[in-house]
Amino acid sequence: MTDFKTEKITDPENVSNHSDIESSGSTELPQAVSKNKDKKPERELTKSELFLREYMARALGLRPPPKQILSTVNLEGVAKLISEGKVKKVITMAGAGISTSAGIPDFRSKGTGVYYNLDQFNLPDPQALFSISYFKENPVPYYTVRKELLLGNYKPTPCHYFIRMLAEKGVLLRHFTQNIDGLERVAGIDPDLLMEAHGSNQVGHCIECSKEYTNLWIRDCLKRDEIPKCTIECCTGTIRPDTVFFGEPLPKRFSELVDQDFEQCDLLIVLGTSLKVQPFASLIIKVPEETPRLYINLEKNASEAKHPLTILVFGGGFKFDDEDNYRDVFLESACDDGCTRLAELIGWKDELTNLVASEHARLDKEFLEEAQKEATELPTQMSHQLSIKADTKVPANQIPMKTNPRESPKQKPCHTEKKAEISKATITSVSASGSSNQKPGNDKKKQQTKLSTKHMKTKK
Question: Out of 18, 198, 205, 455, which one is annotated catalytic?
Answer without folding.
Answer: 198
